[in-house]
C-alpha cells in the first residue's frame, strides 16, 4: 500500500499568489529602473531589483517544498516532433492482398527520379492498400528526395491531383479501381477525361 501524503491546497494557493505579486513587483522595479533619470537613482532601483529577486528565490523554494507533497505527476506525453521523428512501422493489416510474411524492404533507390504519385502507384500496385505513413516511409527508403517536414500533407495533395489514387479512410490509400475506355483499353487509376 502506497503512502498518501495530504497537502494543504490553501498553502499552495497562498504561495502562488505571493509569487505572482513578487513577479509584478519585479516588473515595476524594472520599469522604474528604465525611467530613472540619473545614475544614483538607477543604482537604487537595481538594489530593489536584487532584493526582489532574493524574495522570489525564497518564495519559489517554499512553493517547491510545499508542492513536492502533491501526488506524482502523470506520465509525460510525447510531442508531435518526437512521434514523427521515429515513425513506427505499421502492419499492413488493411491490404487487399494479405500475406502472412513481411513485405520485403526496398533495395536501391527506385523512386529517386519519380514524382510522389508515380512512386506511390508502384508501391500500391505491388502491395495493395497502404497507410500514408507506410507510403512515406517506403518512398524515403526508396530514395525519394525530400526535406519536407509535412510530407503527409504533400502526399495528400499529390494523390488528389493525380486522380488515380484514393483514400479509403483513416489515411489508407489504394489505386482507384480499373475502368475501360471506349477503345476497350484498360486505364488504371487515370483521371476521367472528357472526350469531344
How would you describe this structure to a colleague?
The protein is mostly helical and 196 residues long. The chain has two domains: 9-67; 82-187, no CATH class. Helix content is 49%, strand content 8%. Strands 1-3-2 form a three-stranded antiparallel beta sheet. It has a two-stranded antiparallel sheet with strand order 4-5. Helix 1 (9-35) packs antiparallel against helix 2. The longest helix has 29 residues, at 39-67. The chain starts with 8 loop residues before the first helix and ends in a 9-residue tail after the last strand.
Strand content: 5-15%
Structural class by SSE content: mainly alpha
Question: What proportion of the residues is helical, as a percent range?
Answer: 40-55%
Give me the strand/helix succession: HHHHEHHEEEE
Concise synopsis of the structure shown:
Helices cover 49% and strands 8% of the residues. The protein has helices spanning 9-35, 39-67, 80-85, 116-127, 132-141, 151-162; strands spanning 130-131, 165-169, 172-175, 179-180, 186-187.
Short descriptors:
three-stranded antiparallel sheet; 49% helix; mainly alpha; disordered C terminus; 6 helices; 196 residues; 2 domains
Question: How is the topology of this model organized?
Answer:
Blueprint: H1 9-35, H2 39-67, H3 80-85, H4 116-127, E1 130-131, H5 132-141, H6 151-162, E2 165-169, E3 172-175, E4 179-180, E5 186-187
Helix pairs in contact: 1-2
Amino acid at each position: 500500500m502506497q503512502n498518501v501524503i495530504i497537502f494543504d491546497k490553501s498553502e499552495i494557493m497562498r504561495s502562488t499568489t505571493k509569487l505572482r505579486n513578487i513577479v509584478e513587483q519585479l516588473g515595476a522595479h524594472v520599469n522604474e529602473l528604465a525611467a530613472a533619470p540619473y545614475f544614483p537613482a538607477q543604482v537604487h532601483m537595481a538594489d530593489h531589483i536584487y532584493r526582489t529577486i532574493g524574495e522570489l528565490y525564497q518564495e519559489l523554494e517554499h512553493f517547491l517544498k510545499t508542492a513536492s507533497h502533491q501526488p506524482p505527476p502523470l506520465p509525460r506525453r510525447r510531442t508531435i516532433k518526437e512521434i514523427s521523428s521515429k515513425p513506427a512501422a505499421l502492419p499492413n493489416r488493411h491490404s487487399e492482398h494479405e500475406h502472412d510474411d513481411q513485405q520485403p524492404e526496398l533495395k536501391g533507390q527506385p523512386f529517386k527520379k519519380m514524382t510522389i504519385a508515380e512512386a506511390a502507384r508502384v508501391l500500391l500496385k505491388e502491395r495493395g492498400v497502404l497507410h500514408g505513413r507506410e507510403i512515406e516511409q517506403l518512398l524515403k527508403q526508396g530514395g525519394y528526395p525530400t526535406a519536407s517536414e509535412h510530407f503527409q500533407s504533400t502526399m495528400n495533395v499529390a494523390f488528389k491531383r493525380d486522380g488515380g489514387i484514393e483514400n479509403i479512410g483513416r489515411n489508407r490509400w489504394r489505386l482507384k479501381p480499373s475502368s475501360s475506355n471506349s477503345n476497350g483499353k484498360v486505364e488504371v487509376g487515370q483521371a476521367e477525361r472528357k472526350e469531344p
